[in-house]
Amino acid sequence: MPALSEQKSIVFRFSRAAKGAIAVVEYAGAARGEFADLSSAMRFASEEAARRGLKVDMRFDASLAMIRAAG
């Protein structure tokens, strides 16, 4: 992973959590959370990246990728 000063984006992985929640984990492990819906989870990732002055890179597991593609 590049040094923080060289980092241009922050990568978040989205997956299903218990009871249908959406889990969001930063690849570096510094930020994480569980959310009731996908839009709240995506907002969290976007705001966390903006707070650090970085672009957000969202990656979805297979089940969420289908939801995301559907709109």
Folded structure, characterized:
It contains 2 helices and 4 strands; from the N terminus they run βββαβα. Strands 3-2-1-4 form a 4-stranded mixed β-sheet. The radius of gyration is 12 Å and the shape is elongated. Helices cover 32% and strands 32% of the residues.
User: Low-confidence runs (pLDDT<50, min 5 residues)?
Assistant: none
* Helicity level: 25-40%
* Global outline: elongated
Question: Rg to the nearest angstrom?
Answer: 12 Å
Task: Give the number of domains.
Answer: 1
Structural class based on helices, strands and sheet pairing: alpha+beta
* SS elements, strand count: 4
Mean pLDDT: 86
What is the succession of H and E elements?
EEEHEH
Report the portion of residues in β strands.
Answer: 25-35%
Largest sheet geometry: 4 strands, mixed
Count of discrete alpha- or pi-helical segments spanning 4 or more residues = 2
The neighbouring-strand order within the major sheet is 3-2-1-4
